[in-house]
Amino acid sequence: CLVLAQAADATATVVLTKADQTDSVSGYLARLESSTRNSNVDVVALDGTNQDECLVLDSYLAAGQTVALLGSSGAGKSTLANSLTVLTRTRETHAVRERDARGRHTTVDRLLLQTKNGGILVDNPGCREFGLVDCKHAVAKVFSDITTLGAQCRFRNCSHQREPGCHIQSAISNGEIDERRLQNYVRLRTEASVPAVN
């Protein structure tokens, strides 16, 4: 989602909508802030059912702003929309399935909604995956920490796995970069056909 937002020159904000369902919100926030720190993205945690907590999003929803909610099924998009908009009737929501903790496709259409501050909110159905088309530069920008370090590797064609002199593996060993972030970069680089960093 962050790569698509970057490619579209849109401002992205990551909203954790179910902060009421964990005792370790700070742990989730720290992990997300670490993985998005070079993406210039705000990270917010709140209880999407609590209208008072949702006030923290007011600055994103002012008159003249259009905001699209993106995420997988069960992430809390429609619940958040219900708290942020001036709906006369609320969008239907369901809990995630207990047997596998996966979301159900409850929202099946896109709906333009007016926010309490006069902005426009687009509530979208849940997404299983996003395809990247012509997003090479967006991938490089979202993962600028990795592309910058990769340019310093000993070998031009470094795969960032086991080669000696790999600056990215050193950064992972030092705790500067999360290994999962590298895996996401490699996967998205491949999907977007981004040439290897040299």
Lay out the secondary structure.
Elements: H1 2-7, E1 13-16, H2 25-36, E2 42-45, E3 66-69, H3 77-84, E4 111-114, E5 120-123, H4 136-142, H5 144-150, H6 167-173, H7 179-191
Parallel strand pairs: 1-2, 3-5
Antiparallel strand pairs: 4-5
Task: Give a verbal description of the structure.
- By secondary structure, the chain is of the alpha/beta class.
- It has helices at residues 2-7, 25-36, 77-84, 136-142, 144-150, 167-173, 179-191; strands at 13-16, 42-45, 66-69, 111-114, 120-123.
- The strands form 2 sheets. The protein has a 3-stranded mixed β-sheet, covered by helices on one side. Strands 1-2 form a two-stranded parallel ribbon.
Strand order of the largest sheet: 3-5-4
Sequence stretches where pLDDT stays below 50 over 5 or more residues: none
Overall shape:
elongated
Number of strands: 5
Distance between the termini: 26 Å
In terms of quaternary structure, what is this?
Answer: single chain
SS content category: alpha/beta
Approximately how much beta-strand content do the residues carry? 5-15%
- Most strands sheet: 3 strands, mixed
Helix content: 25-40%
Briefly say what this structure is.
This protein has about 200 residues and is of the alpha/beta class.
Keywords:
single chain, 198 residues, alpha/beta, two-stranded parallel ribbon, 7 helices, 5 strands, elongated
